[in-house]
Amino acid sequence: IEYGNIVEVVSREVDTWVKGKTLEISHLKDLEKYRKEFLGNVSHELKTPIFNIQGYVLTLLDGALEDPKINRKYLERTEKSINRLISIVEDLEEISMLEAGVLKLAKERFNLVFLVEEVFEAQEIRARDKKIKLRFDTSYDKPIWVKADKQKIYQVITNLVVNSINYGKESGKTTITFIDLMDRVLVEVSDNGMGIPTKEIPRVFERFYRVDKSRSRDQGGTGLGLAIVKHIIEAHEQSINVRSSVNEGTTFGFTLKRVV
Ligand code: ADP
Fold it and tell me: Quick check: CB of 123 below 6 Å from ligand 1?
């Protein structure tokens, strides 16, 4: 073996090793950035309700407690902020389980038409407050059997329907359509609401991303709903997409595996 060849081989090996390490380091740096961002977002989300609670309690201690006309109001506001903290913590638990990949899907065969009807029933009051109609695009007399984690898919449809109401317009409508794709079914949730600006569309599935922060918080949003939805659909090895036009409306569509 020539000396020159050995040098070449060794330097090539070293090169590959260095490249590998560089990649590893940049990956670790990305993870670190991601972790910092996540922590920053979480503490920011938690601060608002906590400071609100502090304000209400201080007002009560300051004398409002003695006034029966206003003490109830402050207690009710405290309760509302506590409920908000609970939903943030629940969503955080869910997303960290999903991201850690520890989630086990409990797949079963069920009728998708029934599941959507259950979601409609549960969200009826919310929809009625905004005079929004929840309906199917046509009547589905026959069952649509799918195999999936029923509870998780219930959550997916709920999140999409709740968004369609929250970001929908007064007296608008939410429509669910099933499209047959042979071995799969495409479920579309459409509204005729405010829509999403084109440049924001690719970002709506990111955690804590909101087009309009104050609007989302007013509606009780945590900014985690769509990130959770996407994780659940991907855990099923299926896909989700969105199309939207400002002031016209939004359609979210996801697929599920059909069974007979
Ligand atoms: P949030 O808790 O803020 O609703 P999501 O993750 O569910 O969080 O949604 C992220 C953002 O995407 C929302 O804040 C909103 O700006 C936008 N969005 C979601 N669904 C719709 C919809 N149907 N119409 C318009 N905008 C929507």
Answer: no
- If you ran DSSP here, which 8-state letter would residue 193 be given? S
Report the DSSP beta bridge partners of residue 149: 107
Amino acid at the residue 152? K
Query: What tens-digit pLDDT sequence spans the chain (260 residues)?
Result: 678 888 889 999 999 999 999 989 988 888 888 888 888 989 999 999 999 999 999 999 999 899 988 999 999 999 999 999 999 999 999 999 898 888 889 999 999 999 999 999 999 999 999 999 999 999 999 999 999 999 999 999 999 999 999 999 999 999 999 999 999 999 999 999 999 999 999 999 999 999 988 888 888 889 999 999 999 999 999 999 999 999 999 999 999 999 99
Residue position matching structure tokens 């003695």: 66
- What does the block give as tokens for 246? 């400002």
User: Which amino acid would we find at residue 155?
Assistant: Q
The CA 85 to ligand 1 mean position distance, Å, reads 19
Backbone φ and ψ for 249, nearest 5 degrees, come out as 145, 175
230 lines ligand 1 (CB under 6 A): no
Residue nearest to atom 23 of ligand 1 (CA): 164
User: Which candidate, 190, 189, 135, 169, places its Cα nearest to that of 247?
Assistant: 169
Which secondary structure element, helix H or strand E, spans residue 213, and what is its range? helix 213-218
Instruction: Please tell me the distance between residue 8's alpha carbon and the centre of ligand 1 in angstroms.
Output: 56
Here the ipTM equals: 0.98
CA-based end-to-end distance of the chain = 66
